[in-house]
Amino acid sequence: MTAQYLLKDVRPLGGEPTDVLVAGGLVAAIGPDAGDASENAPDDLEVIDATGMVLLPGLVDLHTHLREPGREDAETIASGTRAGAAGGFTAVHAMANTTPTQDTAGVVEQVWRLGAQAGWTDVHPVGAVSVGLAGEHLAELGAMADSAARVRVFSDDGKCVHDPVLMRRALEYVKAFDGVIAQHAQEPRLTQGAQMHEGVVSAEIGLAGWPAVAEEAIIARDVLLAEHVGSRLHVCHLSTAGSVEIIRWAKSRGIAVTAEVTPHHLVLTDEEARGYDPVFKVNPPLRTQADVDAVREGLADGTIDIVATDHAPHTREDKDCEWAAAAFGMTGLETALSVVQQTMVDTGRMTWADVARVLSTNPARIGRVEGHGRPIAVGEPANLVLVDPDQRRVVEPARQATASTNSPLRGRELPGAVVATFLRGRATVLDGVPQDDPADPRYAAGRVTP
Amino acid sequence: MRHLLSTTDLDRAAAIRVLDTAAQMAATQGRQIKKLPTLRGRTVVNLFFEDSTRTRISFETAAKRLSADVINFSAKGSSVSKGESLKDTALTLQAMGADAIVIRHQASGAPHTLAHAGWTEAAVVNAGDGMHQHPTQALLDAFTIRRHLTGTATNPDGVGHDLAGLHVAVVGDVLHSRVARSNVDLLHTLGAEVTLVAPPTLLPVGVGPWPAAVSYRLDDVLAQGPDAVMMLRVQRERMSTAGGGFFPSPLEYTRLYGLDARRLATLPDHSIVLHPGPMNRGLEISADAADSPRAVIVEQVANGVAVRMAVLYLLLSGDGDTPGAAPATGAVPALTSTSTPATAATTTTAGATA
């Protein structure tokens, strides 16, 4: 008999406390009598005292790097989605910069199947825009869209689709299957050899600069292209105050653009580079406090639609070296919700309903992900996350579920903790612990103890 | 002073202490027997990931004049080209018992990482990292400026002085120059007024907060009568060719920012001309200027040895926190009296890059 869960005195979207019954893969009942709706014997009904806890729709990440196939030494689809579940996610998008590249139906189906086998979250492969991410020829977008993976988000992330003609063609082409181009906005010529945000800190510490204009110029071009051809554009990891202004302007013109910000761009600045610790090396780079303030404001007022992690695990050898030799990227799946709580909820900028919007409803809508980002209502798929906003925890990368340790928040105390995650009614996380299948030897070694 | 990574590690007292110690070292270098027994039994490793004959030889000479054992380790391009990593190199040198590591690296911050990653116990001296810092170059420049512009008949090296009231123009490729960054910080600490002169393309975005004035016009700055003019090498090897380069042509650069005989003649009589070398003769400096009596470029090289002797001395025998690190017997007498206060003065380092 499938387990059923009764969440007692839980606050859906941070609202008034009530009881929620999870049964049959669905939200089966809501209200003070919800427990009565269970058809299980009382012994088979797991009751969770959720007093003070918030219930959100399962989180949807439009932007992760799960590294498989190719770099299983940094992360696998199983370890990355396990980290996702621990962070409250029920669906994640896996970026295309794998080896081989996710630029054919075969590779995206492989990623999709590995995600389904792992069972921690739904995995939606992102298709490459161009063959091999080379920026020269369109990949077979239609084949990926029609594959079992049903790809709807296409991106050369890690690289910018910098050729304006190729970008235009891609924007037009994906209209046939309601796809979206997710652009990594980085003018390559302005960022040759770039190591960090170009400004006061880079001038002082002598690292080659990554100017804000290299992001803003591409976004400005792309929103105009999207307007011209009437297509959907999604801007990945927007990081500058100027980018927020451009998106605001584009939306005011009715252009179909959406934008994301990462947790790290909500909380960290380029000052972190002063110690030359490559854990703070990321692309786009950490910006200034003024940029952090602007992206927070943009997220609060809806200019920025979503938070996406850009979870980018790297092996120790790729980070345990001098700055210039280190890889770009940082992990984020297990800290994203806490960072959003700290920077947006605890500061009064957003409600928990807003959190559900930017971490679940909007990303599911942009990615055309069915069954996720739904209202918490009877009959909806039970893709849910139970959050305790009052817990506090210190980030310890070695104890995280991700296979890599490059968390920029190492040693910091963050508010909030994921208590439970439900994927179609099945608890992937309970009491904050990923629910490994004891029969599956793959998980035995990495099992996290509470 | 545990390491010397940046001139921002030095406050005014510490900087003067290094310069005064260098003056004592320089005095010994006029003797027939130049070698001092001070660092006998200590091991100094020159770890050079980037070509540099001049700086390496200068450090090697300095260490040998102090009787240290010197190991030259050339590892050009090692880490970036996926050879041995900086970490493994550091662990190797630690296992071999290096007391000091003099590192030059093409990556900004590599000496900082070497000093703070827990890979080695050795004292780390930054001999130039990427576009960041080259502190001993700035110290030898300050030593040279102080000697020429504050020295007197009875105190020819200007011992005890700072550089207050002096105006130094730093001219050329500031953007790619670790020499410029180190000099701006140190000259400011010592009370000098600094003007950076460069085409706008060769100044970093973010130069605003630097403790220096900025000018795009060399002739205007020379008309102010600077006491010292420091010409920077145009670092063509660091320049991206994107956009066709940082200036239209070498000829135009020379016309606008080169120091030639005509510009030299406009300087006050006491002004001196410095260049960290190696020079691009005919580009940033003409032969007339480089070989003129007011050019102190060759003297900078000689002073470099004295300054590096002082730095190695202060790092390796100036502090007592390393067991068995007491100065060897027979240290130069003049230094013995200053070594204890040197410790006190040099521990007040500013943690600007922490």
Q: Could you please describe the fold and organization of this structure?
A:
The complex is a heterodimer of chains A (450) and B (354). Chain A is of the alpha/beta class and 450 residues long. Chain A has 2 domains: 4-55 and 378-444, Urease, subunit C, domain 1, CATH 2.30.40; 58-366, Metal-dependent hydrolases (TIM Barrel). Chain A has helices at residues 77-86, 105-118, 141-146, 164-173, 200-205, 212-229, 241-252, 263-267, 289-300, 336-345, 352-366, 441-444, and strands at residues 4-12, 18-23, 26-30, 45-49, 54-57, 59-64, 89-94, 122-125, 153-154, 180-183, 196-197, 209-210, 233-235, 257-261, 306-307, 384-394, 413-423, 426-430, 433-434. In chain A, strands 1, 2, 3, 4, 5, 16, 17, 18 and 19 form a 9-stranded mixed sheet that branches. In chain A, β17 and β18 form a beta hairpin. In chain A, α6 runs parallel beside α7. The longest helix of chain A has 18 residues, at 212-229. The radius of gyration of chain A is 21 Å and the shape is globular. With 354 residues, chain B is α/β, with parallel strands linked by helices. In chain B, the strands form 2 sheets. Chain B has a 5-stranded parallel sheet. Chain B is globular and about 55 Å long. Chain B folds into 2 domains: 7-133 and 300-346, Aspartate/ornithine carbamoyltransferase (Rossmann fold); 135-299, Rossmann fold, CATH 3.40.50.1370. Chain B contains 12 helices and 9 strands. In chain B, α1 runs antiparallel to α12 (333-346) and α5 crosses α11 (297-317). Helix content of chain B is 38%, strand content 13%. Chain A binds chain B through residues 189, 192-193, 195, 198-209, 211, 274-276, 317, 320-325, and chain B through 79-80, 85-87, 105-110, 112-113, 116-117, 129-133, 178, 181, 204-210, 240, 242-243, 353-354. Chain A: The active site is at residue 310. Chain A: InterPro entries: DHOase, DHOase/Allantoinase_Hydrolase, DHOase_cat, Dihydroorotase_CS, Metal-dep_hydrolase_composite, Metal_Hydrolase. Chain A: Its EC number is 3.5.2.3. Chain A: Keywords: Hydrolase, Metal-binding, Pyrimidine biosynthesis, Zinc. Chain A: Catalyzes the reversible cyclization of carbamoyl aspartate to dihydroorotate. Chain B: Pathway: Pyrimidine metabolism; UMP biosynthesis via de novo pathway; (S)-dihydroorotate from bicarbonate: step 2/3.
